[in-house]
Design goal:
Blueprint lengths: L16 H16 L5 H14 L7 H17 L1 H9 L6 H13 L5 H12 L9 H12 L2 H13 L6 H13 L3 H10 L5 H13 L3 H11 L7 H14 L2 H14 L4 H17 L3 H9 L6 H13 L3 H14 L6 H14 L2 H14 L6 H13 L3 H10 L6 H13 L6 H12 L7 H13 L3 H14 L7 E6 L2 E6 L8 H17 L16 H8 L3 H12 L5 H5 L12 H6 L2
Antiparallel strand pairs: 1-2
Helix pairs in contact: 1-2, 1-3, 2-3, 3-4, 3-5, 4-5, 5-6, 5-7, 6-7, 7-8, 7-9, 8-9, 9-10, 9-11, 10-11, 11-12, 11-13, 12-13, 13-14, 13-15, 15-16, 15-17, 16-17, 17-18, 17-19, 18-19, 19-20, 19-21, 20-21, 21-22, 21-23, 23-24, 23-25, 24-25, 25-26, 27-29
Length: 584
């Protein structure tokens, strides 16, 4: 019998065309869609599992997983972690995606560094330049200095010490943690800088209150880069901190002429402008910016209300609060009430202060924080209601800070009896209890209490105690801008080139004030047993007097009101600048 050999045909090759088609469609959804819901993500995940080759996924599949991770991290981080655990061999790109998801999350930022550690422990995988910005962003938000320094070490170890992106992130991280010197060192060592690098260091200096250095950096940057909206916003904030109106007006003009700004960022810049003009004494310009805004958020209203408060325009602050709530239907936030209560405090409006505190708590259900209590306590204490202020202190749900105790102790200095001296001593002891943060202020305030009670022996003992502890009273400092230059003055300052003319002009001011019936407040004079003439002579050395006198002296008659209001200081017993200006 003949044998017939039959050869089986080779198995038909499975076409990959449908799989590629599915993957292209999924990739289109995951790349071009602004958002994807969790149910859609789960459907896409199931589709990838059905069509992905096993056990080794292709680069295309890994990229699909990374996009899936990205969208899921915006919605559900627990689901994101499940997806990540199902990827057989995640590469650095996938790790970066998970780190970024945690870094951008609200409550799980600390996990970004944990995933970064996992990446470092993977054999054959190394972080890349795109890894570090996400890790450092999470560390900056958490003020995790130690972890951020470890990330910095890995930046250097893996050869990214010259990378612009990594260095920009390091500057932001160190600035967020209050490490200005470290931020500067990173910036100074950068072989190449981008506009973002300059923006980062300028913003870092502003956030740390180093406004002069921020403006110097801006001047240094200008020959190399044209500032953008972010640069100008930082410059505006620096001008706000310095009270430098001329530079702030230049920044405002630059924004109008050169910056294309989207609607959301436009609000941020204009809010900064409102704050800057208010702090520099130009309510007129602040209102012009405010009324020119096509759209305002709660921060816009807060900036304007706080501006009115600082300038003693309580009624206008209340009007804008009512307009914000009743006409614009914008919900106030805790900062809104800091502004309104500050307006009450600046004008001594006790009933209004009580009313708005009650509205905040009972109508808008805003839980008072220390700042709100501080405003109300200071308002009551300054108006002689110290017992009521102390009652609020005893009922507060949190421990009063040094600011509140200083406010109460300062108010007792102004009282002419009715308050137990032992109570003042107890307040002072609370302030002095924290040796780590001890300053001269508590001792000076207690010495004023003793002086107001004519207890001069105790005043001498307090001063000896300050001397033994090496504590000295910090001189008051005030500044005034004249012709684009900010001039600083300290108490008793004789170093200014025009000191002689300033002191001569002070004599003229004092004569005009006497003619207007102004009576000096001696409660803030140096506390020694001397007559009113001696105390008056001491008061004339206060820094704000020198600044106001110089401002009026150097201004033209029509500009005097504007110039004199640029003073940045806490008035420590000199005279009210509005009274002085009205005399000239």
């Amino acid at each position: 019998m003949a044998t017939v050999s039959v050869t089986a045909p080779p198995p038909a090759e499975v076409s990959t065309a449908p799989r590629h088609h599915h993957h292209r469609r999924i990739l289109h959804i995951l790349t071009d869609s602004p958002t994807v819901s969790v149910p859609q993500l789960k459907q896409i995940h199931a589709q990838i599992l059905r069509t992905a080759p096993a056990p080794h996924p292709t680069p295309e599949t890994v990229f699909l997983y990374s996009r899936l991770l990205h969208y899921s991290s915006l919605k559900d981080l627990f689901y994101t972690l499940r997806i990540f655990s199902q990827i057989p061999d995640p590469n650095t790109f996938v790790y970066n995606t998970l780190i970024r998801g945690y870094a951008h999350s609200k409550d799980h930022k600390k996990e970004a560094f944990s995933v970064f550690r996992q990446l470092l422990n993977q054999e054959g995988l190394f972080p890349e330049k795109y890894t570090f910005p996400f890790v450092l962003k999470a560390c900056a938000y958490l003020f995790a200095l130690d972890e951020g320094k470890q990330a910095h070490a890995h930046v250097l170890k893996h050869g990214f010490g010259s990378d612009v992106y990594a260095n920009n992130s390091l500057i932001h991280f160190y600035a967020s943690c209050g490490q200005s010197e470290s931020a500067r060192k990173v910036f100074d060592k950068m072989p190449e800088r981008s506009l973002v690098s300059w923006n980062s260091i300028i913003d870092a200096l502003v956030q740390m209150g180093e406004f002069d250095d921020a403006l110097r950096m801006f001047v240094e940057m200008k020959p190399s880069f044209d500032p953008d909206g972010y640069t100008v916003q930082s410059v505006i904030d620096a001008c706000s901190g310095l009270g430098a109106l001329s530079m702030g007006m230049w920044a405002h003009a630059y924004v109008l002429r050169n910056c294309e700004i989207d609607a959301n960022f436009d609000i941020l810049v204009k809010n900064s402008l409102i704050e800057m003009y208010c702090k520099c004494g130009s309510l007129r310009m602040a209102l012009q910016v405010f009324h020119g805004m096509s759209k305002r958020d709660v921060n816009s209203w807060n900036a304007m209300i706080l501006g009115f408060a600082v300038h003693g325009e309580a009624e206008r602050a209340f009007e804008h609060f009512d307009q914000m709530v009743n006409e614009e239907r914008i919900q106030p936030n805790p900062i809104t009430f800091v502004g309104v209560l500050s307006a009450c405090n600046h004008r001594g409006l006790v009933e209004e202060g009580r009313k708005y505190f009650d509205i905040m708590v009972n109508k808008f259900k805003i839980e008072p924080v220390l700042q709100h209590y501080g405003c109300l306590i200071d308002l009551l204490a300054r108006n002689g209601l110290i017992e009521e202020a102390l009652g609020i202190v005893s009922e507060m749900p949190m421990k009063p800070d040094d600011v509140i105790w200083r406010s109460l102790l300062d108010s007792t200095c102004r009282q002419s009896g009715g308050l137990s001296l032992s109570l003042s001593e107890e307040m002072a002891r609370r302030l002095m209890a924290d040796e780590a943060n001890a300053s001269s202020e508590a001792y000076v305030l207690l010495s004023r209490v003793y002086a107001s009670a004519n207890r001069w022996n105790e005043v001498g003992l307090i001063r000896k105690l300050m001397s033994d502890k090496g504590l000295t009273k910090e001189p008051g400092c005030s500044s005034v801008e004249v012709n684009g230059t900010v001039h600083e003055f300290f108490a008793g300052d004789s170093t200014h080139p025009q000191a002689k003319e300033i002191y001569q002009f002070l004599d003229v001011i004092e004569e005009r004030l006497k003619g207007e019936g102004y009576i000096q407040d001696f409660t803030q004079a140096p506390l020694v047993d001397e007559g009113e003439d001696g105390k008056g002579n001491s008061l004339r050395l206060h820094s704000e007097r020198l600044a106001i006198a110089f401002g009026i002296l150097k201004s033209k008659p029509g500009e005097r009101d504007a110039e004199a209001t640029f003073v940045e200081s806490h008035f420590d017993g000199g005279f009210n600048p509005s009274i002085v200006v009205s005399c000239f």
